[in-house]
Amino acid sequence: MDTEIINVLLIENNPVQALIFKQMLKRAKTGNFNITYFQNLQLAISFLTTQKCDIILTDLFLSDSKGLNTLIRLQTVKPDVPILILTAFNDEKLALESVKKGAQDYLVKDKITQDSLIRCLKYGIERHKFTALIEEKNYLLKQANEKLQDQNQELILINQKLATVTNNLEKEVKQQNLNLETALGDCKNFEQTLEKLVAGTSSVIGDDFFAALVVNLSSVLDVRYGLVSELIDEDQLYTIAFSDHGQIQSNFSHGFKNTPCEQSMILGQYYCLNELNQKFPEHTQLVSLKAESYYGIALKDSANQVIGNLCILDDKPIKNIEQIEAIIKIFATRGAAEIERHRAKQKLQTLNEQLEIRVEERTKELKTSQEILRESEELLRLTIENTPIGIVTSLSTGTFKTVNSAFCQMLGYEKEELLTMNFRELTHPDDQENSGQQIEELIENKISQFTLEKRYIHKNGNLIYGIVRVGCIQGCEINNTQLVATVHDITDRKQKEAELHKSLKELSDFKYALDEAAIVTITDVNGKITYANNKFCQITKYELNEVIGKKHQIINSSYHNKEIFFDLWQTITKGKIWRGELKNRTKNGDFYWIDNTIVPFLDEENKPVQYLSISTDITSRKEVESALYKSNKLLQQQLAAIESANDGIGILNLEGEYIYINNAHLALFGYQKPEDLLGKTWHIFYDSSQIKRLQTEILPLLYNQRKWRGELVAHRKDGTNFTQEMSLTLIEKVGIVCVSQDISDRKKAEENILKSLAKEKELNQLKSRFVSMTSHEFRTPLSIISSSAGILELYGDRLESKKQEKHLKRIQTSVYNMTQLLEDILIINYSETNNIEFNPINLDLVTFCNELLEDLESNFINHSLISRINPKHNFLVYLDQKLIRQILTNLLSNASKYSPIGSKIYFEVSQAKNMVIFKIQDEGIGIPLEDQPRLFESFHRGLNVGNIQGTGLGLAIVKKCVQMHQGKITFSSKIEKGTTFMVQIPLKYR
Questions:
Q1: Among 931, 932, 934, 942, which residue's Cα sits nearest to residue 762?
Q2: Are residues 880 and 965 in contact, defined by beta-carbon separation less than 8 angstroms?
Q3: 915, 966 Cβ separation under 8 angstroms
Q4: Interval 44-70 mean pLDDT
Q5: How far apart are the C-alpha atoms of 659 and 632, rounded to whole Å?
Q6: Mean pLDDT, residues 443-451 taken together
């Protein structure tokens, strides 16, 4: 028998399972085991910080730690102690990941025997000792490898310089893009041109970039030649890419003395819009190209030194030079950066070749392939760590293997945090499945790489947008396959795009609102109409094609003198806003009045480029004003214009008596003839409270401010009340003009909104009841489980087998109750979200009901269950077995729960009129009348249930399940007499 004591740390969430493992070890014939047990990881870690152990047995899924994170946290605290995984999940993938992370073995609990457990313990300890010996030797090899680090410093400095150049390039490109976005609002064509260029060049780099650049430049700018040259010698330019009619031609060298290229390199940029051959007659290559026009820009490096030239040529004059200049300047920055990057790459390649010679010499001395691998990994790590772009590697399962600093900064995590996570945890839920098919094709070598745009979730919860390019490193086996991804943060660009979209949307909304509310025209600097909205056409009676290109003289009524129009033109041509009222003429000769505002749009030199005219139709107002100052006879004639108005309009004299009232006003108060109201005062429409408000509040304001607008409650001739929106205008020497509307419908809409708010409040109360119920219903079984598990742990070896079984039974019952509660909550949730599954099958109803009663037999020990099932044999129905079980189980359980001991419970199944009918009757406490309307609401319980346990979910679930079958449920109940539930479900066959 072994005499050596083996100290074992056992970490197990389930006290019963832990007791089983402890018994296995204590009864072992070989080995002397000292066992220390903890139920959660935090207590175990506290123990390990002060105590020693020879091996750790742990479940991966604990109350305070889940999955491989449990293994990693234990290894962090005790890296020198072997760990053996005990789990209930027979998951081969998880087992492989655990062993890769350093676990000695992975045992499935229901397959563990005493011999296999002890054998794995001993093998794990011996294997760990052997691994430690290997690691010690590897450490000696690492010391030899570290001597190479000094030789890598020059490469690190070059990488840092390259990173600086790249960062400066990105800043410049961002600044140029910002300038470009500002110009987008003024020139749609410029936006389309730039989009084509960006689409043609954004996905390529290096030499491919220059070819794409000249081809796309010549295409989108509609020129024949595109040319990028690099300055190598003092007087020679060497072409990097040359395009003729969109086709790449052979590269060549050419002198640039006395050429337009020399001018652009001296001046920074140079253009000749036509007659290029006449200005440079000695340049034979221009003659051979038959170039008529030219635009070129010098390419400068980060030290502002000229390193090349980017130009376009055409056999016809160049147009839109401002747009061409803006576009080429943007891509000149990128072109210069690519040339500088290429030069840096060549220098880096030279240094790499020198470094490879040194590495080769050193490799001959180190001999082992492991040292070569570590050297390459270190070089790769330094390169990845110093790049400003996020770079990660991961297993094919999505678990991160390496992450660089740029990726950590992008998402706000520390490296240690990310290495315990899966990429799905960082990905927006809607983007998690976007790359699944592409990753499979990548692993199967069907594609070499792929690029996609996706959203990440920052540690602080913000969204991060990224362009991700994914490649693959194939291992010897498919499980060793690694994915390599570069991530470019484009969050700022996305935000700017969103802001631009929002601004465009707002402008569109403003235009829509303006067109709906006013008469709008736009004219050029010569006064010719370039735009007119529908309201302009409606009021002038002209078609749109009749006014475009014409001046406003077509609607001149000759009513105003020429001085008014002279003053108008003088005002707006100076860039000032003109306001005034004009009388115009329609196409058919009618007159109308407008309140007109003309706004000049100015260019950069504050000179008008076009004029925006915004007008409102004030014809009715003008007619009313004219009518009020005429005699009563003239007033009656002119008021015909407002007889057809939808709003009720009435005029009262200074004594408050009606002197005019239109038909809409009559209809508003339920009268037929004007004579019914003329000469009467407004008092007849209001009760005493409204009259008091008019006299003490409204009329004083009206006499002071000349206008008042508000709401009053009025009554019609038939006595019905309505809410009236009223506008009052006081006109001297005439009286009061009253405009009224019935806004009862709008008030009802407001009341509906208030009801919706009340409904939201009720929903919040329902959530509160749910939290209260679940906390109470979970607390009791959890207390029972904790108590029984503690007794079994402390006194299990001294308890009789019957008492042990009793406590195990209490644990199992509590777990069952908690599981049942969770299932009830899930069913309610699925039904509320319309996600509940409905799977009907052909079901032998008689057999099903008999088996259900056998399963529930223990619930009726204290009751007499009387069942009547008709027909008695071979009764097939097409129902969902799971949902029917929910209906009958809840109703029968409630009958048992709320009935006194010794009472009878009746269960009846019958068929009538293509319906199957279930009837459950008890002699219980009954349902109070005040509870019956809310009986099927979630979490609602009767006032008379007292201390009888329950969640208030059972009948809500029953109602949902019945509805899924398109059936109905009814009940009748009397206090202290009992309750009867009847469920009717349509019969369907298949």
A1: 934
A2: yes
A3: no
A4: 89
A5: 9
A6: 85
Residue 830 corresponds to which amino acid?
A: Y
Q: What is the DSSP letter of 348?
A: H
Q: Amino acid identity, residue 313?
A: L
Question: Strand (E) positions, 788-859?
Answer: 841-844
CA 286/CA 280 separation, integer angstroms: 8
Contacts of 870 (CB under 8 A, 6+ apart): 909, 910, 911
Three-class SS state of 651: strand
CB–CB of 827/937 below 8 Å?
Answer: no
Distance from C-alpha of 937 to C-alpha of 955, rounded to nearest angstrom = 8
pLDDT in tens, 93-138: 888 888 888 888 888 887 888 888 888 888 788 777 767 666 766 6
457, 482 Cβ separation under 8 angstroms: no
Where on the phi/psi map is residue 54: left (φ > 0), alpha (ψ -120 to 50), or beta? Answer: alpha
| Nearby residues of 346 by Cβ (< 8 Å), 6 or more positions away | none
Which residue has 């570590």 as its token pair? 374
Q: Is the dihedral of CA 437, 443, 444, 448 positive or negative?
A: positive
d(CA 973, CA 978): 6
C-alpha separations of 85 from 12, 30, 126, 820 in Å:
10, 21, 16, 30
Neighbours of 403 (CB within 10 A): 26
User: Residue 477 has what pLDDT?
Assistant: 47
Tokens of 891: 């109703």
The one-letter code for the residue type at 108 is V
Compute CA distances 53 → 44, 83, 131, 896, whole Å: 11, 11, 17, 54
pLDDT at residue 478 in the model:
45
Burial class (CB in 10 A: 0-12, 13-18, 19+), 76: exposed
Q: What is the chain's Cα-based Rg? A: 44
Residue matched to tokens 């005439």: 734
Helical spans, DSSP H, in 629-743: 632-638, 663-669, 688-693, 699-705
313: which residues sit within 8 A by CB, 6+ positions away? Answer: 223, 224, 225, 227, 276, 286, 289, 291, 293, 294
Helix (H) or strand (E) holding 237: strand 236-244
What are the beta bridge partners of residue 598? 578, 613
**818 neighbors 946 (Cβ within 8 angstroms):** no
**How many Cβ atoms sit within 10 Å of the Cβ of residue 449?**
13
Residue with tokens 């600093």: 405
Amino acid letter, residue 556 = N
Taking the CA atoms of 753, 757, 760 and 765 in sequence, report the sign of the dihedral they define: negative
**213: alpha, beta or left? (left if phi > 0; alpha if psi -120 to 50):** alpha
